[in-house]
User: What shape does this take?
Amino acid sequence: MTLDEAARVIEDFDSAGWRIISPQVGDVIEALVMMPRWQLSWWDALIVIAAQVAGASVLWTEDLNHGQKFGSATIQNPFHD
Assistant: This one.
């Protein structure tokens, strides 16, 4: 993908009404608490928190356990049978 194509894809996100979630201090602290409790990496914990803040019902990832629930978000592995 060229840089121009990538820019168009990102512009499409904006026109489609996608929301950008920016972690707040409380989100970062919540991710720190979540890490040892669920044995998550820092980035995975922050992604889960962002999904919760966004009100997502599904979080698509191959990095977490398929079917696991984190608040409102259920993990779905796109490669799960």
